């Protein structure tokens, strides 16, 4: 942006959250004059940023000589309680980025065809836009996010919880298609996904969406199960993600690790998937079926025994089968122990049939350390 009547380039304006944090730092350092100037500018630019308005009131009180240890001590008013919860959620500890070079442990492998992933730490109320390039994965946006009124771990319709799982974006709903509650728009997710359905989870209408025009953000826990963002943050995400492709990971908590920590599990899983693919291609039906766990079930309810009978009959009628796998991503499934979902494009060619499909294949580490398939579904 170029200043009027000048050839000088203006300094880009920081994100409102960064500006609030800078003002809080100034307050905590006793620089009340500087903090009041920063907050006055912030509320001028973002008049509906209610927490910033509250902090501005506090810094003015501090400048008068009052000593107030938090943004108003009286938290009996529900609206104040919400703002205080937002203040705590925006603390340095929660907002701080992980050490450079660390990645979320849920991202075992992101397909080369995918440039971005959205990862939400539901416990912290933070969303991270991850970007992949030749040097690896890095955080390019670190955003405040609101979640369901009753927290996370959705199980049923109307429980007011945000789901934990791995989802994809189904489309975009613009603001003129929605009530004002949803702000600038919404990115609907495919909840319940194949894993949710296998566990009998119910409900629908889980979105990433904006906030009403009269507020900057919503309270940390205030939605019916959706993840909410400031409208500008939502529009920035909308301009980055790819409908039907970008993964959205809603995690109960996140562990940040070095890429090398993920290498062993990634290599084991790639090897297991290759064994499954090659044994199927070789029509080695017994070895192929051994890659399925004893508790395996199909999306339509077949158990391991019924599935084995079906595959043996089908393969017995084939002279040639070729299985190709591409666009492989691997995600450690949040909220589950030893469960990974492999998402890939599968190409099937036999002597009398050919097809291509996108597959979700769930692998669980068994007691003996082997990885075996417990669910698989075509999208």
Number of strands: 18
Structural class by sheet pairing and helices: alpha+beta
Percent in helix: 25-40%
What is the CATH H-level superfamily of the largest domain? L,D-transpeptidase catalytic domain-like
Q: Radius of gyration from the CA trace?
A: 25 Å
Main beta-sheet annotation: 5 strands, antiparallel
Based on the coordinates given, report the CATH architecture of the largest domain. Beta Barrel
Would you summarize the structure shown here?
By secondary structure, the protein is of the alpha+beta class. The protein folds into three domains: 16-93, no CATH class; 109-256, L,D-transpeptidase catalytic domain-like, CATH 2.40.440.10; 258-378, Nuclear Transport Factor 2, Chain: A, CATH 3.10.450.
Identify the notable features of this structure and list them briefly.
18 strands, L,D-transpeptidase catalytic domain-like, Nuclear Transport Factor 2, Chain: A, alpha+beta
Please give a structural write-up:
This protein is of the alpha+beta class and 379 residues long. It folds into three domains: 16-93, no CATH class; 109-256, Beta Barrel (L,D-transpeptidase catalytic domain-like); 258-378, Nuclear Transport Factor 2, Chain: A (Roll), CATH 3.10.450. 29% of the residues lie in helices and 27% in strands. A five-stranded antiparallel β-sheet has the order 2-15-16-17-18. A five-stranded mixed β-sheet has the order 5-4-3-13-7, with no helix packed on it. Strand 4 and strand 5 (136-144) form a beta hairpin. Helix 1 (16-28) packs antiparallel against helix 2 (32-45) and helix 2 (32-45) packs antiparallel against helix 3. The chain is elongated and about 85 Å long.
């Amino acid at each position: 942006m170029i200043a009027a009547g000048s050839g000088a380039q203006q300094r880009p304006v920081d994100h409102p959250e960064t500006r609030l944090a800078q003002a809080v730092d100034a307050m905590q350092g006793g620089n009340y004059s500087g903090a009041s100037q920063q907050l006055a500018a912030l509320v001028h630019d973002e008049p509906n940023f209610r927490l910033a308005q509250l902090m501005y009131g506090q810094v003015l009180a501090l400048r008068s000589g009052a000593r107030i240890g938090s943004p108003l001590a009286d938290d009996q008013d529900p609206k104040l309680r919400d703002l205080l919860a937002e203040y705590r959620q925006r603390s340095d500890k929660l907002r701080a980025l992980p050490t450079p070079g660390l990645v979320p442990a849920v991202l075992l492998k992101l397909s080369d065809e995918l440039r971005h992933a959205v990862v939400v730490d539901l416990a912290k109320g933070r969303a991270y836009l991850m970007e992949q390039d030749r040097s690896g994965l890095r955080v390019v946006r670190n955003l405040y996010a609101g979640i369901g009124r009753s927290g996370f771990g959705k199980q049923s319709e109307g429980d007011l919880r945000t789901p934990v799982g791995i989802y994809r974006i189904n489309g975009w709903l613009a603001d003129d298609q929605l009530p004002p509650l949803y702000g600038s728009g919404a990115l609907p997710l495919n909840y319940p996904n194949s894993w949710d359905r296998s566990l009998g989870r119910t409900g629908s209408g889980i979105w990433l969406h904006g906030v009403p025009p009269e507020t900057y953000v919503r309270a940390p826990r205030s939605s019916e199960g959706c993840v909410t963002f400031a409208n500008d943050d939502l529009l920035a995400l909308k301009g980055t993600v790819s409908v039907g492709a970008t993964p959205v990971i809603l995690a109960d908590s996140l562990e940040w690790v070095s890429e090398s920590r993920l290498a062993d599990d990634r290599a084991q899983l790639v090897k297991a998937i290759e064994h499954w693919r090659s044994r199927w291609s070789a029509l080695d039906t017994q070895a192929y079926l051994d890659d399925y766990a004893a508790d395996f079930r199909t999306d339509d309810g077949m158990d391991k025994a019924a599935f084995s009978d079906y595959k043996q009959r089908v393969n017995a009628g084939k002279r040639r089968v070729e299985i190709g796998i591409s666009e492989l991503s691997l995600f450690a499934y949040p909220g589950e122990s030893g469960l990974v979902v492999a998402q890939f494009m599968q190409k099937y060619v036999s002597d009398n049939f050919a097809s291509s499909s996108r597959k979700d294949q769930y692998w669980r580490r068994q007691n003996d350390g082997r990885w075996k398939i417990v669910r698989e579904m075509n999208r």
